[in-house]
Every structure is written in structure tokens, then in C-alpha cells.
Amino acid sequence: MTTIPSSSFGCKIIYSTQSGTGQEVAEKLSRDLLRNGIITKVDDIENYDYKKLLPFENIILFVVSTQGHGDVPDSMRLFWNFLLIRSHPSNALGGLRFAILGLGDSSYTTFNFASKKLNQRLLSLGAQQLIRRGDADDQHDLGIDYEVEKWTLELTTKLHQLYPLPLDFVPIDRNILQKSKYMVEFKTSDQEGQRMQFKPPQQYSIVQLKTNQRITCPYWNQDVRHLEFDIKDPNQNGRNLLKYSSGDVTYILPENPTKSVNEIIECLKFDPNTIITSIKPFNSELCTTPQINLPTTIGILFKHYFDIMGSPRRYFFELLQFFTSDPLEQERLQYFSSTEGQDDLRDYNQKEKRNYIDVLKDFQNISIPFEYIFDLIMPIKPRPFSISSSSTMHPNELHVSAGLNTYMAPTRRLLRMGLCSQWFQTLSTGALVPMYIKQSGATLPPSPNIPLVMVGPGTGCAIFRSFMQHREMIKKDGALGEAIFYYGCRHANSDYLYQQEFEHYEKSGTISQLSVAFSRDSDDNKKVYVQHLMRRDAQLIWNLLENGAWFYISGSSGRMPKDF
């Protein structure tokens, strides 16, 4: 095997991602550069200590996704706000050289807008751009891979010009299996392994579920849940495990279904009670240690860490070819991981909504060493939810309003649910749930006298329920500014969430106007949406905005914000 020269140049790869694609691309970029003698360290921008490190970096490669309508991903928001500080001098990043690869979809007018904004801001702070900004496009016939591979080749050439490798260096062949990311140490003890319990990473608190109630009517096709969590600390009187304000977001860590966990462990022929005592990177410069409390067991990791219900990425198929004993399976896996095979991979994998278990059942001659599971299967991501309660009204509780996500695998005619949706649907009262709190960009104004215009159809109403509860509790302390709320759903009798509560707030003066659009209840079959009611109230909204009103939109990130 060709070894990397000890003098090889190194740089950082920082990714921001909303769905996990950014992480996958960043790790693929790292592998491709390593094959060409360039050592990199990959890090999530959320974990990167930019205040201390950024001014002293030499080269950073950014992999940037765009969220919603041109916004930076949630994980990048604090970093972006730091870059926007006006007091930074124009040469603040004069020693930094950078390259940016944007990931997006050109069907949106804000295609790769986050990467474009980052590129412009870094230049304005004196940083030097190594090569052109990459614009990977999901709409391309070959998907984002076309631009990723093209841009990576240009980047590799540029880095080799800046930092030449020894003349005798030979790039590592893609068909040679590389070391796994981590070294894993085990010990076998059935009884001890069976007794072990899951311990989430440090940032999580474990809270108890008090209520799990469906709040759409039973015959309606969308199951929306109202969940209430007890956030009191059971070990200390009068203290809470979590503190939150109206507008904050809770991140909830779901778990895999036990049936699916048993299936994948059986497919892979692992002992779920095998104890893992150590997980260390082969090279701490290449990756960080995963957030796993040790000791633990293989069964616990498949239950709580590996996202086995997720959709396998291209690299999964590329790596899987090394672990089959069947030449036909190997040939098929090589094709799926090639550029030419991406259309067929999409038909087989993404379109048919296959998860890791489905694929492993199709390739039955697979034998994978456990340490490679970290390379093959992504970790479970916590799911963000706007908190739908106010701590002033519910000081010991936290509420969440969640629409359960179902989808169909077209050819196989399988109805499936998202991981968190499936978990919420079966979660019983008393269940223990890991979560942590983050501030969002949507907060109440500093003064209750400032007017509000709130637009929140469907479960987008969650944050505004929190706002209204807070206003309800403080209105006795003085006058409130005017507040109007626009809500939308299909039918008054099927999916009007929190109807009685919202109507009470209008009657009590907590809000000055409640306007509800029922898009399917019109006598003349004419669809009425929230934007129609807003157009009706155009003068009212304008007057409020002229008087300093804060304007909020919450809901689906698809067409809804653009329509408004």
C-alpha cells in the first residue's frame, strides 16, 4: 500500500449541512485528497472554535449547503453571525486561503446562495480564494457528483502546485481498501452487556414524556402530535433540567425501532451484547472521536447511534464492495458507486426509499468488520422542533407540535414513516427522551408594546402558540402591542390545530386578530390560502409594519414562504 509522506501538507475541511449531504461530501473530499497525498481534518462548523482558530488558519476548504430560501444552515448561523460583525477590520482574515464548494438545487432561485454569501464575506475580510467557487447542482444529470468530482480535481491540482509532493509519490488506488476511521476494542460479557443502558452525549438532558396526543381528527391523513415533556429535575427540588424562552428550538434524539435493530444485527451477524471499551481515530488529525459514552454495546449503538433507517449514500455502496464474497454482488456495487451508475442507483435506492437494512438484505454475502460500520452508516441526527409552549405559563413543561412524516416506496408499494415520526407514534407516557435547547433567530421583541404580525399555517403555528402563551401571562402587567395571527389548514373539522386555545386568545385580548384560511372548505370550491387573507388586510399589515411591527413566518420551507 502506498503511504502518505510524513511531510504532506494538511488543511481543514469545514462543512455545514442540514440533511447530512454536506458531511458526506466533506468526508468524500477528505478521502480523495488523502489518496493524492493531502492530509485533511474534517469538522462540523458547529463544533469548530472559529473565534480562536479562524484568524490563524492557513487553508480551509468549506462545504456549504443552503437551507430554505437562501439561508445558511442552522449549524452555520453562529459562525455566519460572527463573520458579519462590523468591527472586523478589512484584513481580519488576511492570512487565510480558502476554497468553497456549494451544494444546492438550481430549481431554486436562491441556488447555492449560502456559499455565495460566504465567498463574498471571506473576500471582504481579506482572505484569498484558491480556486473558483464550486456549484454542485442536484438537478444535473449526474447529480451533485459531477461538479464535486470536477471541482475536487481542480483543487487537488492547485494544492499540488502550492505544496509539491515527492517525485516518487504514487496516488493511492481507489480500488484498495483503506483503514477504517476508528480502532475499536471489545470485550465479551453477555451478562454485563445485557445490563448496560444507553447514555446520551453530554449536551442532552433526559426528560419524561407526560402527554402524547393526536390533535388532528382520526380520519385525517396527516397525524399531528401534541407532546408534553416534564422537564423537572427528579433529583433536585424546584430545579429544571432545561431552561427555554419563547422562540427557542428543542433538538430531540430519536431511537431506532427494536425490530429493525434486531434485523440489521442478524444480517451482519454481530452479537448485540458485545461490549465496546474503546473507540479511537486511527489518526486524530483526520477525524474527531465520535460522541459516544463508553463502555457501551453493539446493540446500544445500533439502537441509539447508527441511523439504520436512513437512506444509504453513494460511499456506502463504494465501500460495501470490499466486504462481499460474491463476484456478481461486487460488480453491481462497483457499478452503483461509479459515475455512470448514478441514475440506476437513484432508481434503486432513493426513489424506492430503501434503508440500510433493505440493501443488506439484497446483498446477502456481506461480512463487515464492526469498525467499518462507522464509515458505512451515518449517525442519527437530532431532530429540531420549535417549542410550542411558554415557560411563563408552563414552568415545568416543554411542549412540541409534530407532524408525522409518511412516504411511499413507489414500485414496492411500501408505506413508510420517518424515523422520528415512527418513534413519536409509538412513544408511551413515561418514556424517557433525550433533548437539548438552542436559541433560534425568532425571538419576541424586547418590549411587549411592539406590534406583531405572525404567519404560521399547519404546524408552523407552534412557535406562535408559545408567543401567545407568553403574552397571556404578561398582559396583566401592562398594555400589549397589537398582534395579528394568520393560520391556515385544509378543513375546520380535520386539521385546525389548537382551535379553542387560539380563539380564546383573540377573545381575551392576547392577540388582536385571528384570521384562519380553510383551503378546502369553500362552498364554491375556490381554494382560500393565508396569502389571500393577508392581501385582504394589506393596509392593516402595512400600518403595523410602519409602526415597527415584527413580522414572522413559520412553516414549510417549500413554496409557502415564497407565496407569502
Percentage of residues in helical conformation: 25-40%
Q: Mind telling me the CATH class of the largest domain?
A: Mainly Alpha
Q: Give me the count of strands.
A: 21
Q: Please, what is the average pLDDT?
A: 90
Compute the gyration radius: what is it?
26 Å
Number of domains: 3
As for the CATH topology of the largest domain, it is NADPH-cytochrome p450 Reductase, Chain A, domain 3
Q: If classified by CATH, what would the architecture of the largest domain be? A: Up-down Bundle
Protein name: NADPH-dependent diflavin oxidoreductase 1
Keywords: FAD, Flavoprotein, FMN, NADP, Oxidoreductase
Domain Flavodoxin-like: 11-156
GO molecular function: flavin adenine dinucleotide binding; FMN binding; oxidoreductase activity
How would you sum up this structure, described in words?
Keywords: FAD, Flavoprotein, FMN, NADP, Oxidoreductase. The structure is a single chain. The protein is of the alpha/beta class and 564 residues long. The protein contains 19 helices and 21 strands. The protein folds into three domains: 10-162, Rossmann fold (3-Layer(aba) Sandwich); 181-442, NADPH-cytochrome p450 Reductase, Chain A, domain 3 (Up-down Bundle); 452-563, Nucleotide-binding domain of ferredoxin-NADP reductase (FNR) module (Rossmann fold, 3-Layer(aba) Sandwich). It has helices at residues 21-35, 50-53, 77-83, 113-124, 144-162, 190-195, 258-268, 298-304, 314-320, 327-336, 342-350, 356-362, 373-376, 419-426, 462-474, 499-508, 530-536, 538-546, 560-563; strands at 10-16, 39-44, 59-65, 97-104, 128-129, 134-137, 182-187, 205-214, 224-230, 249-252, 275-281, 296-297, 383-386, 397-403, 406-409, 414-417, 432-438, 452-455, 483-489, 513-518, 550-553. Strands 1, 2, 3, 4, 5 and 6 form a six-stranded parallel sheet that branches. It has a six-stranded antiparallel sheet with strand order 13-10-17-8-9-14, with helices on one face. The chain is globular and about 80 Å long. It starts with 9 loop residues before the first strand and ends with a helix. The relative contact order is 0.10.
